[in-house]
Write a structure and sequence with these properties.
With about 575 residues, the chain is mostly helical. The chain contains 24 helices and seven strands. It has helices at about 5-10, 20-50, 55-60, 65-70, 85-95, 100-125, 135-160, 170-180, 185-205, 210-225, 250-285, 290-305, 315-325, 330-345, 355-365, 375-380, 385-400, 405-425, 440-445, 470-480, 500-515, 525-535, 540, 550-570; strands at about 80, 315, 425-435, 440, 455-460, 485-490, 520-525. The chain has a five-stranded mixed beta sheet with strand order 4-3-5-6-7, sandwiched between helices. Strand 3 (about 425-435) and strand 4 (about 440) form a beta hairpin. The radius of gyration is 31 Å and the shape is elongated.
């Protein structure tokens, strides 16, 4: 019996049957069809965003969707092409190969494979906690900048303008805007009209499949008016048939160059998936597993590579739609994949005349919900370090575009550096007896030292190689806080751990204080700290004064020892 729960943890789809009923079957079916009607045009649009042939987006919406549903832990997630991941993929490759070329596609497939392997390894090794290194302010700054870049990158497409693709995105965009006089009016009408229709439909008819309706109508108008023959850009011929799975070719030199981008995509795309899973599981009450979801998302990217497509991710908007329309299990994703199969087999000829400006309008509508510029202000209100990390990530992402992965890496390194800097400056305080009977910060509360011969020092940090120097400075400064200090008592309740460097510092202080006739003592030390102390040769010197439980207990013992020592000296 114990084998089945273990299998269900490894293969989550084995547990779907417990949620199946007539109502859930109906909900999964309706949700799957509804999501597919949104996912198909989005897949074409996101392939365009990634600078890839549009049919590759449909390939990314098939096998990866199935694999993520079978091996993920949240049944309502809709995995496939996603705006942020598509942008990251395309931007990471533009500096290596020309867009919409066989080499570019090969690199996109390799990027999907690498980012998938990274996620799978993190999940299989149960090290998903490493993804927590990406702080919320950094992620917020990156998403805001990326959303702005996505939006700006689609403006020329919507207006029918040409935009160069160099290593400086903002310069390229400015060049496109300077050529506004070359605007292609039919393209601008298609793009602007589609965007307006989508906005109005979202405002007044939110339950309608507006994206599908706009795509169908625009395609029909394009075919009837000969839009392509008059210089308009259309999707063109989409190969009919299903993708043939295969083993991606690995170019090791390209793999080394793509490793930073693969890591960033693995990181950011999982943050997208995790945010959706947390929100949905909070509403359904169902548990989701971070490491299992990493495995599912990683396998989905690997499946995308095997399908000849680019990295995929869980879409926040489609996952929300999936949940809202009644999805209970991953069966809804299988239904959606079934609709994609029908599209690839029978409906691709109907998409030939779909105007590319309409795809740009779809992307603009989706990314309009991503920015949260107030979050930058909130980060500054919470703390200078958070505000600095968020703002620098935002600015560097814009400056480095199209190499936007450098922006998030800059923010990640800065946030880690600031964290290390904060840890190297731990809070310390000298304590005095408060009227409420506790020992508190004497500078803050205007208290006196408990005795002219004793100084109590509170150290609020682990005692490690990062903080050892600060600890030494604080203890030495404590000996100078009063004219005749005979003992420094460290209130150690805030010390959760101590390493070899910390113990070396304690030992050095003991040697220093021996010549000064000053006692170093500890009170409130935790078991794990005392265990480390007891395993060192310093324990014979520190042991008698390291196990005091409270400041009061330590003071009584230290003062009694001083009185006994004074009496002995008189004799």
């Amino acid at each position: 019996m114990a084998l089945l729960p273990r299998l269900e943890r490894l293969l989550p789809f084995l547990g779907w049957h417990r949620q199946w009923s007539a109502a859930s079957w109906r909900g999964d079916t309706i949700a799957g069809v509804t999501v597919a009607l949104v996912m198909i045009p989005q897949s074409l649009a996101y392939a365009q965003l990634a600078s890839l042939p549009t049919h590759v987006g449909l390939y990314a919406a098939l096998l990866p969707t199935i694999v993520a549903a079978l091996f993920g832990s949240c049944g309502q997630l809709s995995t496939g092409p996603a705006a942020l991941t598509a942008l990251l993929s395309g931007a990471s490759l533009l500096t290596i190969a020309p867009a919409e070329t066989p080499e570019f596609l090969s690199l996109a497939i390799l990027l999907a494979l690498m980012s998938g392997l990274i996620q799978f390894a993190l999940g299989a090794l149960r090290t998903g906690w490493l993804l927590n290194l990406l702080s919320h302010p950094v992620l917020t700054g990156f998403i805001n900048a990326a959303a702005l870049i996505i939006g700006l990158s689609q403006v020329p497409s919507v207006l029918g303008l040409s935009m160069p693709q160099t290593t400086h995105f903002l310069v390229d965009f400015a060049q496109a805007v300077r050529n506004l006089h070359a605007l292609h009016l039919p393209s601008a009408l298609f793009g602007g009209g589609a965007l307006l229709a989508l906005i109005l439909a979202k405002r007044f008819f939110p339950k309608l499949p507006a994206v599908l309706i706009v795509v169908v109508v625009a395609t029909a108008i394009s075919a009837a008016t000969g839009y392509a023959e008059h210089g308009g850009k259309v999707v063109g011929t989409i190969p009919a048939g299903l993708p043939v799975p295969g083993v991606p070719e690995v170019d090791w030199s390209a793999a080394v160059a793509l490793l930073p981008a693969a890591f960033v995509i693995a990181l950011v795309s999982f943050m997208e998936a995790a945010s959706s899973a947390k929100l949905i599981s909070g509403r359904t009450g169902n548990h989701w597993n971070q490491n299992q979801e990493l495995i599912g998302q990683g396998l989905a990217k690997i499946a995308s590579a095997a399908s000849g497509a680019f990295p995929v991710s869980a879409s926040f908007s489609r996952s929300g739609l999936n949940y809202a329309t009644g999805a209970k299990t991953g069966m809804s994703a299988l239904v959606a994949a079934g609709v994609v199969v029908v599209t690839l087999l029978y409906l691709t000829p109907l998409l030939r005349h779909l105007p590319r400006p309409v795809l740009g309008a779809i992307i603009l509508l989706v990314v309009a919900s991503l920015p949260d510029f107030h979050a930058l202000i909130r980060a500054w209100r919470i703390g200078r370090d958070d505000g600095l990390a968020s703002t620098l990530t935002f600015v560097s992402t814009l400056v480095f575009a199209p190499n936007i992965q450098n922006g998030i890496l800059t923010g990640l390194l800065l946030s880690l550096a600031l964290m290390l800097y904060r840890d190297m400056r731990p809070r310390t305080a000298l304590l005095g007896l408060h009227p409420d009977g506790t020992y508190r910060d004497l500078a803050r509360f205007g208290l006196d030292h408990p005795d002219p011969r004793v100084v109590i020092l509170r150290f609020d940090s682990p005692l490690t190689f990062v903080t050892a120097a600060a600890f030494e400075r604080a203890v030495i400064a404590a000996t100078e806080a009063q004219p005749h200090v005979s003992a420094v008592l460290v209130s150690a309740s805030g010390i959760n751990t101590i390493d070899a460097t910390g113990m070396h510092t304690v030992s050095a202080l003991l040697d220093r204080f021996r010549g000064m006739n000053v006692t170093l003592a500890f009170c409130g030390a935790k078991k794990q700290v005392l265990d480390v102390m007891q395993r060192t040769e310093a324990w014979s010197r520190i042991g008698p004064h390291a196990t005091y439980r409270t400041e009061r207990h330590a003071l009584e013992a230290l003062l009694a020892a001083m009185e006994a020592q004074a009496a002995t000296a008189k004799d």
